[in-house]
Amino acid sequence: MTSLADSALKNTKFSILELAPVREDQTVEFSLKHTLELAQHAERLGFDRLWLAEHHNMDGIASSATAVLLGYILANTHSIKVGSGGIMLPNHAPLVVAEQFGTLATLYPNRIELGLGRAPGTDPLTMRALRRGRQETEDQFPQDVLEILSYFADAHPNQRIKATPGQGTHVPVWLLGSSLFSAQLAAKLGLPYSFASHFAPRMLGQAIQLYRENFQPSEYLDQPFVSMGVPTVVAQTDEEAEYLATSVYLRIQALLTGQSLKLKPPVESMEGRWSVSEKMAVQNFLAMAQIGSAETVKNGLNKLLEQYQVDEFIFTCDIYDTAKRLENFSLLMDLKK
């Protein structure tokens, strides 16, 4: 007999957040082609959506030209929803974002989604290079979101600036966040909300509560919809998963210490490779991570569902071996059977 927990897991949407990780022994071209391979694999498995994250000036992440890469994936898949998780709005003029995603929506109707983030997703020097003197700030985020929504809506008779393509495409817009700000804005605007608990889990519970308690039904959504990021390393055994996860630990350690983010092969042990404080920082980063056999991860996901009652898990995975990485997502989807 199916337990209540298993039933809840079956009814929870499973999606993927992809950063096009670059392996230290491979080219960026290899990473981009593997991202397509993953998207096609996810489509066959029945994942609901695959999102790409915008980051800049990071040698281990190849999804910087997010809209361009989305076009490549859309052209070579058939049904899976794809989108941004997210476009970092302070880096862009809202009209340009609307035109890019409006173009994708026109070419691939009902398949594109726009997730918007409030942070720049890079360092201050790169941020200035991206903006080229524009004065966008995170504080302007609400106004920029409203502007984008207006470009996707049906045009008003006296509307002077229109997104072409874009106007009238009604591209679904999500708000992303790792703090309380975007949760509050998503609730006010009646938009779906995705919390970045795959790297910043500390305020997850607070943000979800704030979003649900303040949600106002809208033309976009009649009730709250919450997605949470979950790092995963799923393998045949707990021991294999823990071994594969050392690539994840090394990558986060590199992020925290300003080193290269290229994926490194797994190691037998992390002992002697990180300090006590680095180990603690990595563990905090991965507080929501599910690492282990299918059974171990199933139990972990059920506990997350019991605690947070989210509508969707959006999974990340930084396994070094591409075959094992694809297997990670196969094993995840098997949990819904």
Automatic annotation (TrEMBL):
Residues annotated as signal peptide: none
Listed InterPro entries: Bact_Lucif_Oxidored, CmoO-like, Luciferase-like_dom, Luciferase-like_sf
Entry keywords, A to Z: Monooxygenase, Oxidoreductase
GO CC terms in record: cytosol
Domain Luciferase-like: 14-303
GO terms for MF: monooxygenase activity; oxidoreductase activity, acting on paired donors, with incorporation or reduction of molecular oxygen
PANTHER family in UniProt: LUCIFERASE-LIKE MONOOXYGENASE
Family statement drawn from the similarity comment of this UniProt entry: To bacterial alkanal monooxygenase alpha and beta chains.
NCBIfam families: oxido_grp_1 (TIGR03558)
The protein's name: Luciferase-like monooxygenase
